[in-house]
Design goal:
The structure is a single chain. This protein is an alpha+beta fold and 144 residues long. The chain has one domain (21-142): Lipocalin (Beta Barrel). It has two helices and ten strands; from the N terminus they run H-E-E-E-E-E-E-E-H-E-E-E. Strands 1, 2, 3, 4, 5, 6, 7, 8, 9 and 10 form a ten-stranded antiparallel sheet that branches. The longest helix has 15 residues, at 2-16. The radius of gyration is 18 Å and the shape is globular.
Length: 144
C-alpha cells in the first residue's frame, strides 16, 4: 500500500511540474505560422547569404505540438520548442536530413543562429529572434 501511495504521489508530482502546462495554442496563435527568413546575423554582424527561393530557409512553428519544422536552405529540419513565454523562446536539439549541398555556409549559419535564440518579438508580419545579449540573430516574414 505504501509503495502504491508513493507511486501515485511521484506521478502526480511529475505531471504538475510540466513546464508547458500553461501554454495553449490561443496564447501564442500569433507565432503559429510559416516564416521565411529575410536576414541572418551572428555576433551583431549580418551574414551575407543568398535568400533566393530555392535556398531560403523557412520555419513553421507548431505551438500545439511545441515543435518547429522547416528547411535550412539545404536540408529539412525539425526540433522541439524548449521554452516559450510572452517574450522568450528557445529550441532544443535540431535534427534533419543530411544532404550535402555545394555551399553549406547558409545552412550552417542558420542552425547555429537557431541554437542561440533566446527572445523574440513579433510586429505585424515580421518575427525577429534575439540572442542572450538581445542582439538580433534572425528575422522572418510571414508567408502563409
Amino acid at each position: 500500500m505504501k509503495s502504491l501511495f508513493l507511486f501515485i504521489y511521484c506521478t502526480l508530482t511529475l505531471i504538475s511540474c510540466n513546464t508547458n502546462k500553461n501554454i495553449s495554442e490561443s496564447d501564442f496563435a500569433h507565432l503559429q505560422d510559416i516564416w521565411a527568413i529575410t536576414s541572418l546575423s551572428q555576433n551583431g554582424l549580418a551574414v551575407e547569404a543568398d535568400f533566393s527561393q530555392g535556398n531560403r530557409p523557412v520555419m513553421e512553428l507548431n505551438i500545439t505540438e511545441m515543435k518547429m519544422y522547416g528547411h535550412d536552405g539545404c536540408n529539412d529540419i525539425f526540433g522541439p520548442i524548449k521554452t516559450l513565454d510572452s517574450s522568450s523562446i528557445s529550441f532544443g536539439n535540431i535534427a534533419g536530413t543530411k544532404m550535402l549541398c555545394p555551399n553549406m555556409t547558409l545552412p550552417n549559419a542558420y542552425i547555429k543562429a537557431l541554437h542561440q535564440v533566446k527572445f523574440y518579438e513579433r510586429k505585424e508580419l515580421v518575427l525577429t529572434f534575439f540572442d542572450e545579449q538581445h542582439k538580433e540573430t534572425l528575422r522572418f516574414r510571414k508567408v502563409d
